[in-house]
Each structure stands twice: as C-alpha cells, then as structure tokens.
Amino acid sequence: MDSNRSTISSILFALAIATAVAMGASYYLPQANVASKLTAKATTKPLPKVRWDAAAPGRVEPNGGEIRIGSVVPGRIVDVTVKPNDRVSAGDLLVRLSDDEAMARLHAARAEAAVRKRERDTAEANPTDLVRTRRQAQDATMDAETVLSLARAEMDSAFVAYRRDATTAAREQLDRQRTAVADAETRLETARTAQRRAEAASGIPLPTRVEAGLTVARADVSLAETALERTRIRAPRDATVLNISARVGETATPSPEQVLLLLGDVSALKVRAEVEERDAAKVRVGQLVVVRSDAHPEREFNGKVASLAPSLGPGKLGQRGPRRPSDVDVLEVVVDMDGQPPLLPGMRVDVFFRPTETVDGAPKTN
C-alpha cells in the first residue's frame, strides 16, 4: 500500500513540474519574440523607395554600335588574321578569301593594258597639247591605282607579320605601310580629279580607236583589282574585335545571316533602351539615368540620355518571331554611360530615368 502511495505521489509531483514549465514557457517565449522584433526594428532602417519618371529594358552596345562584318563575294576562307579582343585600325586585314582566280584575272588585264598603251604611243607620235594632257592624266590615274594596289598588299603582309611577332620593328613597319596606303589613296584621288578636268577641256578631240582600246583594257584592270580587293575583308574603322565566327576552310557567302566578325569601339559604352509609348513624353535628352544589370545585382551605373528616336517603332529587344498587331511600339533611346562600367556589349539591362525635379542633387523619394 505504501509503495502504491509513493508511486502516485511521484506521478503527481512530475505533473506539477511539467505544468509549471509549460506555464513559464508560454509567458517568456512571447516576450522574447517581441524583444527580438523590437531590436531588429531599432537596428534596421528601411530603404527609401525612389520615384522614377520611367523604366525601360535596354541592351549594352559599343560606342557607335556593333559592326557586323560579312563577305560581299563567295569564297573559301584561307586566313583569319585577328583574335577576339584585338585592337584593329581602319583598313587592317581581318579575313582573306581564296584569291587565285582574282590574281590570274588581274595579271592578264595588266598585260593587255600594257600592250594597248604601247599601241597608243606608237600610233601617233606627235599628238596635240590637249590630247597629250589627256593621255598624261589617264596614265597618272592608272599608275596611282597600281601603286595603291601594291601598297595595300604590302600593308597586309606587314599586318600579318605584326600579328605573328608583335615586336617594335614589326610595329614600325606596319605604321610605315599604313602611311604609304594613305598617301597612295590621296595620290589616286588627285589623279582622278586631274583626269576629269583634262577630259572635260573644251576643244579636245574625241578619242581614237587605239585610245578607246586602251581605256577598255584599263577598265578591265580596275575591275580585276576591285575583285581582288573584295577577297580581303578589312576593318571599316578603328575598333576592337568582339567576336569571330569565321573559320579557315569554311566558305563565306554574301548573306546578312552569316556574320564573320563582330567589331565595336569599347572605349565608351552606350545603352539602347526601348521606352513604351505611354512613357515617351517623360524622357528627355540630357536626363540622368540609372542602369542595373543582373550580372551586378548590388551595383548601379549612371548615365545620361544622349539621343531620342524621331518616331516610335517596333521593339527589337524582345523580338522572337513575326510582329503581331498587339505588339506595342516603343521609343528608342540611346544612353551614354559614365566612365568605364564593368558591362559587356550585348548585356540586357534595366534603365531607370531619374525625375527632372531633384532635392540636393538626388531624386525625390516617396
């Protein structure tokens, strides 16, 4: 009996202790939660909400836009002289196509022109002064074209040598060849101007048959030189090589879909944004903007609106197929980025246009 009473007493005592613990927890835990919330509220400041005039999607691009380089004639690629991130100057050789046929035509045309010139010179030993002036001007133009063709060939060789071995001597040689090409282009333009004046002089007789034959032969030389030059894909201006799709051995075709190289001036970056029609009136030239990128979620980059499109047009950033009647027209806005932000051409970004009215140089907040 005594043992049963002892067991019952122990059970009652344990229940009393458990009840007391439960009542204490129910009292202290809410207090602790409230205290932690008050502490967090006291130490954390809410971020201000910035009021923007407008927001739009955008895409980063080089200064002056991307330059998509393709081929104007079909041909097999025999050499790619540059690599991504290479800095090139206007006229530098980027890709060379097979030129065996073009070289053969050029040699044949030059030989025919030389024969026609000798026939012209022996056909009439004492031409009049006007005819002599015309012939001299035509000969000077032909000589200038030949000098320019040879200067470009030598510059291409110097450029390839410099890419293979970037020494100071190779760089100086390349600079000299670039200067020679520029001089040859100036000389050719001067000769063509003089030829036009000589051929338009009053009182000059019509060309003879031998002179006409020489003119045709020289036209064939010019066409052959042009065909040869089209097998050389050159940089249209100073830029950086962003991407290369050309591969040696592939066949290049003149198609807008086949881009061999992508160039751009990355010394300064721009953002091309597309503002919806409803926000078009809120954007102005010179307006400050903030650019955000998913690649740098904790950073903001500043810029300024440089230009606005004169009219609305279809959006290009989100195009995935044929345009639908429900598609919204947008206003294309170009933004100049400040400094050298760590953004890459082609990145998708969000552009936020600051309100015109600011307080202490900062946008108003709600």
Describe what you observe in this structure.
The chain has three domains: 1-45; 54-62 and 267-363, Elongation Factor Tu (Ef-tu), domain 3; 92-233, Orthogonal Bundle (Helix Hairpins). The strands form three sheets. The protein has a six-stranded antiparallel β-barrel. A four-stranded antiparallel β-sheet has the order 5-4-2-7. The protein has 366 residues and is of the alpha+beta class. Helix content is 42%, strand content 26%. It is elongated, with a radius of gyration of 38 Å.
Keywords:
single chain; 366 residues; alpha+beta; Elongation Factor Tu (Ef-tu), domain 3; Helix Hairpins; six-stranded antiparallel β-barrel; four-stranded antiparallel β-sheet; 5 helices; 15 strands; elongated
Count of helical regions: 5
Elements, N to C (H/E): HEEEEHHHHEEEEEEEEEEE
CATH level 1 class label of the largest domain: Mainly Alpha
Q: How many E strands?
A: 15
The first-to-last residue Cα distance is 79 Å
CATH architecture heading of the largest domain: Orthogonal Bundle
Beta-strand content? 25-35%
Can you tell me the overall shape? elongated
Radius of gyration: 38 Å
Write down the domain tally.
3
Provide the residue-averaged pLDDT.
Answer: 84
Q: What's the arrangement of strands in the largest beta sheet?
A: 1-8-12-10-9-13
The CATH topology of the largest domain, please? Answer: Helix Hairpins
Structural class: alpha+beta
Stretches where pLDDT falls below 50 for ≥5 residues?
Answer: 25-48
